[in-house]
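Record 1 of the preview.
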Amino acid sequence: MKRTIPAVIAGVSGTVMIIAFFIPPAQKWQQTAEIWFTILAAIAFLIGGTNLCLHHLKKVAHQQAGWGFSAVTLVAFLVTVFVGMTKWGVPAAEKFPDYAWSGNYLEEGGGLWWLYEYIMSPIIATMFSLLAFYVASAAFRAFRAKNVEAMLLLVTAFIVLLGRTYAGTVLTSWVPESMSALTFPGMTGVIMAVFTTAGQRAIMLGIALGIAAISLRIILGLDRSYLGSDKD
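->
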């Protein structure tokens, strides 16, 4: 029963969303379903945040391996929640200058904006900078010309890399302007606009068909993997 009721709710909600898309009078049902989704999402965030705190508090209390990282995670999480909930440092909105909390919590100059701009963004930039070395190492191993496909991948990657750098522009600066498509930047533009776009569209079509198939399976109750195993 505890698996049947959620499956029925998922099926009915999915059916309502599909019907509302094609039948305008049923759009009120869609709005109601979206409101319930927002409520459930808020509850899920609350449960997830509580579970996060309990998990890391347990590691810190028992001083398990890596408990220092758990302590940093807890402090960062609690500080971010406090700053966001209290709108710390957020300037008042122009329409309501007498109300200190009337501004948007992401307003420039606010506490949450400061945390993202000066802590989160540098951390993200550092992480991706470190990942660049791993990507370069993986590319060196993957781009070995062992067959025709690998050769095409290697040549294409070489052209795109040069086309995105100043070196590529300098190396093909002698090419006449009427033949700019033969320069490294020109070839890169063709590759990105034609071949890459075609590949992306094919991938997106495959993803769309997969989503449609999985959605139908969930609506019809054929796929209940999202409910967990029967032993739960």
